Amino acid sequence: MTANDTATTAVPAPAPVTGPGVQVVAALLRRDDHIVLVQEQRDGKEMWSVPGGGVERGELLTEALVREVKEETGLNLRAVGPLAYLVNTTTDRYPSTVVLTFDCTEWDGEIAVHDPDGKVTGAVLLPLTEAKAVLAPLPRPDPRSNPCWTTSAASAPAACGPTGTTCPSNDRARDTGSRERTMTLTHDLDSITATLDPLGADAVMRALPQANIAADTRWLHTRAERLSRHAASIRDVAPARAALRDLGMITASLARHTSRQIPPPAVEAAMLHLGATADEVPRETVYSYATRNPRGLRRRSFTDTPGEHVFIDEVTDASHALDDAIRHCAGMPEAANQEAVDSLAATVHERLRAFAAHLLTVKRTLTPEYFTGLLRPYYPPLDIDGTTYYAPGGAQMPLLVLDVMILSQAATGNLAAWYEQYLTDNVLYLPPHHRAMADAARRTPGLARLARHRRHLRPAVALLIDDLLRFRLPHRQLARDNMAVRAGGSLGSGGYTTSALDRLLDVTDSARALLSPGSPV
């Protein structure tokens, strides 16, 4: 399919997802080398599992876990430990079932079953070796046939469940063709967020593209207000991010069709609450649209066109590459010698090349006419509580963190003042951990300036600055091509013209100049 085909081909409407999504919590109740298991009736058979059950509407994950442990074991869960692993499955009855299992060591009391459902018939504290034996008969995905499945949770019995990482083979086409599957597993908070549906919005989000095609503002307004009613009960970070993702996309759609940047009052209040809970801006971000966006049947999109799915997937993969680059770049200032620095820089270089390759795929797939005419209108600014928040944009991607680590304090004079204001305007759209890294990097000399006095840094820093320039030059041309098909004075989704890219190139050139002999400190 060519880029022009992407822009013009009619796409059949997807079959609507019916039935509710389900969240389930479970506990690995460990003590020394023992673990608590419960025995329950399933389809007339007795089976063993770890204690847990469904999360009720409006209930926090921690509250549900404490309740379920008490009902099924009689034990008092004093503290909920870290997430050990999660599983997301899809069945005909439940389009999305997310099982989050927590590692819990702080509990007390005597074992006594009080299951109101009558399914749990017993509970026992078993040595891990015995627990593995009784859990072994449970059905499990075969890691030989599913590359997304791994078993690396050190604290969990072998058959309790897995931990894993993002798998590139877990694509939309394969997901859509499977009616019952285990999805990619990860510790990453954004991937956890992608599995959640705290507003019960799965069916609504599947219908969003059809509502946008019809420009059905009444439907959009009604659904936004209905979903907003559930927001007040959300008090955890991951559910708040998932709720902002869904409510933000519906609100952006409403703004696109009405040209009104201020959300309805109830929606605005919900978004403010969710933003405060998530410690992020009170609207959807590039992370909501990409790394926190489910794949497969639960994918959130404005148009459900092939081009938009390519856009979402490539930006997601580009962001993951940048995350890894940031982790390695952060260790470069403290590296003891050139060999250590070069090793870290080689990984950053590789990840930056992958990042650029993903965006090149976007450029080759999405024509300026397609992006400007079909997608760009769904990225409007929103005025919330008297502040304008811009839509997801390139300036808000994780590249911003890497930029600061390399370029901080490289520019001087008016260019330095512009760059500081650019950072101030965009750092606020980052998630908290990236925001903290960027703020810390702004207060110290970047790698380019450090390399002036630490000669072992110079080859590695020069390599990374060249990587930034190799990305920025074609990116500027892409932006110019997109602006050429828009009305004069148009802004990018992040609120900038292409002149901002000119200035970023100037800042990057300033950093490269610092590495030249005789340049001013």
Describe this structure in words.
The protein is an alpha+beta fold and 521 residues long. Helix content is 47%, strand content 13%. Strands 1, 2, 3, 4, 6, 7, 9 and 10 form an 8-stranded mixed beta sheet that branches. α8 packs antiparallel against α9 (265-278), α11 (306-329) runs antiparallel to α12 and α14 (399-407) runs parallel beside α16 (432-442).
Indicate the overall shape. Answer: globular
Output the number of helix runs: 19
Tell me, rounded to a whole number, the average pLDDT.
Answer: 81
**What Rg do the Cα atoms give?**
25 Å
Q: How widely separated are the two ends?
A: 52 Å
Class by alpha and beta content? alpha+beta
Query: How many strands in all?
Result: 12
| Share in β-strands | 5-15%
Helix content: 40-55%
Uncertain segments of ≥5 residues (pLDDT<50)? 1-20, 139-187
Largest sheet: 8 strands, mixed
Features:
disordered N terminus; globular; 521 residues; 12 strands; alpha+beta; 47% helix; two-stranded antiparallel sheet; 8-stranded mixed beta sheet
What is the compact description of this entry?
With 521 residues, this protein is an alpha+beta fold.
